Amino acid sequence: MAAKRENRDMRRRVAQMEAKRALRQDQLRRRKRDNIIGASAIAVAVVAGVLVQLTVFNSNPTPAEIEKVRSGIEESIPSGQASPQATNAAHIPSPDLAAGRVLSGTLSTNQGDITVELDGKAAPQAVSVFKSLADEGFFKGKNCHRLTTAPSMGVLQCGSADGKGGGDPEFQWGPVENSPADGSYPAGTIAVARGQSTFSNGTQFFIAYKDSTITQDTGGYTIMGKVSGGLDVVRRIAEGGVTETGSQDGTPKIAVTIDALTLD
């Protein structure tokens, strides 16, 4: 009888030990599963963060203060419309129109006149385009929609087709000409704004009101001329700052409307 009781007790202890072992194994499996789920969630969060950076921070070239420099001087081309090609359409004037010539003229604005010189020797395609636009009266009524006042970059950007920075997808051209390898755009520089492609120049231009450095990692921007008089007009506009509180890039507080651009 005693032997039978001992055997029952032994079987009970063995069963208890097996139950505890099974419980520990189940706990280990659950812990491993939770660790895998946690690691997967972290990986998803990291990927999502990267995607946000790629889609948000790269969506608009374009100055973030200075970090948004490129978007501040790039045209916004409506998506799904004409893609820039490495050749110009027939309606884009030939560089021969201004090749070898230096054109003088005046950018007349509601804030004062700015006299300019555009160098067809250094940038024949760009000067031909802007000579053609000026002769057509394109710039009458256009505005200067963007001002950047970052520490290493100060520019006023003008000539948008819609007055808000948008470009005309049917009026894109190239190439980039006379772009400084070191990214230096001295005070008084007049350069052509563009989209992401080097064949996405349009009707927009910018004037550097102080010595500026602009990233060249996507091909740079065409320097087509310089301000020969009236840079103080641009500097006065820049001193007014932008409408966006605390920003160094945005709509100028001092509204600028172009009355005409004449070039001879």
Brief summary:
This protein is α+β, with helices and mostly antiparallel strands.
User: Can you list the strand order of the major beta sheet?
Assistant: 10-3-4-7-6-9-2-1-11
| Approximate shape | globular
Oligomer state of the chains in this structure = single chain
Compute the number of helices: 4
* Rg calculated over all Cα atoms: 32 Å
Which structural class fits the helix and strand makeup? alpha+beta
| Biggest sheet features | 9 strands, antiparallel
The percentage helix is 25-40%
The end-to-end span amounts to: 125 Å
Relative strand content: 15-25%
> What would the average pLDDT be, to the nearest integer?
80
* H-E string: HHEEHEEEEEEEHEE
Task: Please count the beta strands (DSSP E, at least 2 residues each).
Answer: 11
Uncertain spans, ≥5 residues at pLDDT below 50? 34-67
Give a structural overview.
- The protein is an alpha+beta fold and 264 residues long.
- Helix content is 31%, strand content 23%.
- It contains four helices and eleven strands, in the order ααββαβββββββαββ.
- The chain has helices spanning 2-57, 69-73, 124-136, 231-239, and strands at residues 102-109, 112-119, 146-150, 153-158, 184-185, 189-194, 201-208, 212-213, 223-229, 249-250, 258-263.
- The strands form two sheets. It has a nine-stranded antiparallel sheet with strand order 10-3-4-7-6-9-2-1-11. It has a two-stranded antiparallel sheet with strand order 5-8.
- Strand 3 (146-150) and strand 4 form a beta hairpin.
- The radius of gyration is 32 Å and the shape is globular.
- Residues 34-67 have low confidence and may be disordered.
